[in-house]
Amino acid sequence: MKIGAMFPSRYLKASDFEEESSLTIASVEMQTFKTRDGAEEIKPVVSFKGEEKGLVLNKTNSKLIAKALKSDDTDDWVGKAVTLYAADVEFGGDVVDAIRVRGRAPRPNEVSGGDAIPF
Predict the structure, then answer these.
(1) pTM for this one?
(2) 26 falls within a domain
(3) Dihedral, CA atoms, 67, 69, 73, 76, nearest 10 degrees?
(4) Which of 1, 21, 43, 119 has the most CB atoms lying inside 10 A of its own CB?
C-alpha cells in the first residue's frame, strides 16, 4: 500500500499526480486551517469540477493561476481550466514534492480560435 493511501486527505497532494491533469475550476473559497502551533490561518481553496479534493493555494500557485488565466480576481477563474502536476521544489533548504499549476495544455486537435489547421 502506498503511504499516501494510508493518510487520506480532503485536499490534493503532489502524490495524487502521477501525470499532469487538466481540471476546470468550480469555485474558490476561503477556509480556516489550524497551524501546527494551534493558531488559525485562513487560506484559499480551489474546488474543481469532477474532483472531490480541493487544492489549498499557496502564494506561488495563486500567482501561477492568475498568470495562466490572465486575471488576479478569483471570480474570473471559475469555469476555466488549468493543468496541475507534481514537481520537485526547494523549500527550507530541502527538495520536496509539490503541486504546480500552468495554463491548460491544448488538446492535440485544438487550435486557437477553434479553426482547423490551415495546411
Answers:
(1) 0.80
(2) yes
(3) 180
(4) 21
